[in-house]
Amino acid sequence: MTSCSSATKQGLPGGPAGIPVLGAALKWKGPETNLEWTKEYGPIYSVRIGPNQLVYLNTIELVEEYMEKKGAAFLGRPEGPAAIANGLLFGQGKKWRENRNAFMRAMWRASINEPYEAIINNEVDFLVSQFSDHLGSPLEIDTLLLPALSSRLVALLLGEPVPRDGEEMAVLLQQMRNLEEVDLTSKSTQMFLKVKKFRRPLEAVSGRTIPDMFKMSEAMQGLLRGWISRRRAALAKNGGQPNPNALLDQLLTSEEYANKSEEFDKELMQSVMDLFNGGVTSSLSALEFAFLYLMHHPEVQAKVKTEIDQVVAGGHGITWANREQFPYTQATLIEVLRLGSVTPSSLPHVTTEDVVIDEQYEIPQDVFVMASIYSMHRDSRFYKKPELFQPERHINAEGKVVRPRSYRPFGVGERLCVGYNLAEIELFLFMARLVSTFRFRAEDPTQPPPFDTQMRVVRRLLPFACVLEHWQNT
Ligand code: HEM
């Protein structure tokens, strides 16, 4: 048991009351509700949502002390939806750790690799040409960003892109679009995941479509089997020498997966599926927030553009290595990830043993513990007027970028996002290049689209359109 106690212990912390079966589910309208509960109940509360008892840690102090410093007791996860093996997102124990070690090493190598930037730049070049076809008229940019973000992950895995108009991309995009519809917080989805045959009746009762995640997983497995055997054949042809630009080669030759049983192929497949599940809509959502904030704040957009132009006219030649020359652009992204909070409660961590928090609250094993990123990102002790979009708050007196202590867009502790490094690089390159090329504005500049959101796999803005213009025409 992880503990430290002298005060009287009192079981789970208090929190919002609920009703039988549903708990407080009907009161929860999104992460805004968690913020209200934080204001009402303080740094820690517990709440039952359906069958699950959730404990929310709402301050960076509690998160650091328990989920980070004493993190081992909080490393569990709930069962993964339609999982074929442990994988990365929902695995736990020894297999998860092996998967994670292999992926962290391979991803780290990829992130310091110039070819990854080349992959991103290739996607951005294509986006620029596509955006240019829509100048002056309203465009829902997510329709073009989703293929770009899917394609960059395939190129990272295989060391080269697959044809954008080929069958493989068509299958992948279909699955990524289906995934966009998945709402893991919905009760019907959770029931369907427990009992497959309930899907149709649940759809009839709820009046909502429930994406068939089992079918999606099968389609992804088909694709991945093909890619894994393609890279195995290439490896055999090269005398076992991995292509340094192909993440799959790095993984297939790693001690965790090389010469292992079929079980490990399943682990590899689930983990790669998790890269797509965890790494496409999250980055997409972050970029959508970025462009919507810039539409609301044309003065910020102009400042980013000016900063870039002063170093590299037209945005060509921006690299992650020279990011220090673009502090305002970096600060803008930090502010986007802070307020956007695309994963507002991170992913659930589950206690692997009984723990005591704050010397008084007893949390039994198998309880969901949530890091309340949304509340932490709006903590007025760390952010003056937290609701305001102010990139300059992340630049210190010396003009250097500072990441606030209460800032955890990529999660907490040892379960920190596997792709955070890649995500930071690509968000920076996508935003910098696109803003240096186009001005993003609302159709009616006096009334930009609202920040209305919905919870899907991550927090998403409702679809919105923007108008793109070349700067010289504005
Ligand atoms: C803006 C972009 C992204 C955000 C905000 C984000 C956020 C997160 C968060 C909050 C977690 C949970 C951490 C925790 O449990 O405390 C997570 C986990 C994960 N993310 Fe990301 N992520 C992003 C991009 C990516 C990308 C690009 C990839 C891969 C290509 C990725 C792959 C994963 C995986 C595999 C996990 C599971 C880690 C584990 O449980 O061990 N993510 N991410």
From TrEMBL:
<feature type="binding site" description="axial binding residue">
    <location>
        <position position="417"/>
    </location>
    <ligand>
        <name>heme</name>
    </ligand>
</feature>
<keyword id="KW-0349">Heme</keyword>
<dbReference type="InterPro" id="IPR001128">
    <property type="entry name" value="Cyt_P450"/>
</dbReference>
<keyword id="KW-0408">Iron</keyword>
<dbReference type="InterPro" id="IPR017972">
    <property type="entry name" value="Cyt_P450_CS"/>
</dbReference>
<dbReference type="GO" id="GO:0020037">
    <property type="term" value="F:heme binding"/>
</dbReference>
<keyword id="KW-0503">Monooxygenase</keyword>
<dbReference type="InterPro" id="IPR002401">
    <property type="entry name" value="Cyt_P450_E_grp-I"/>
</dbReference>
<keyword id="KW-0472">Membrane</keyword>
<dbReference type="GO" id="GO:0005506">
    <property type="term" value="F:iron ion binding"/>
</dbReference>
<comment type="similarity">
    <text>Belongs to the cytochrome P450 family.</text>
</comment>
<keyword id="KW-0256">Endoplasmic reticulum</keyword>
<keyword id="KW-0492">Microsome</keyword>
<dbReference type="InterPro" id="IPR050182">
    <property type="entry name" value="Cytochrome_P450_fam2"/>
</dbReference>
<dbReference type="GO" id="GO:0005789">
    <property type="term" value="C:endoplasmic reticulum membrane"/>
</dbReference>
<keyword id="KW-0560">Oxidoreductase</keyword>
<keyword id="KW-0479">Metal-binding</keyword>
<dbReference type="Pfam" id="PF00067">
    <property type="entry name" value="p450"/>
</dbReference>
<dbReference type="GO" id="GO:0006805">
    <property type="term" value="P:xenobiotic metabolic process"/>
</dbReference>
<dbReference type="GO" id="GO:0016712">
    <property type="term" value="F:oxidoreductase activity, acting on paired donors, with incorporation or reduction of molecular oxygen, reduced flavin or flavoprotein as one donor, and incorporation of one atom of oxygen"/>
</dbReference>
<protein>
    <recommendedName>
        <fullName>Cytochrome P450</fullName>
    </recommendedName>
</protein>
<dbReference type="InterPro" id="IPR036396">
    <property type="entry name" value="Cyt_P450_sf"/>
</dbReference>
<dbReference type="GO" id="GO:0006082">
    <property type="term" value="P:organic acid metabolic process"/>
</dbReference>
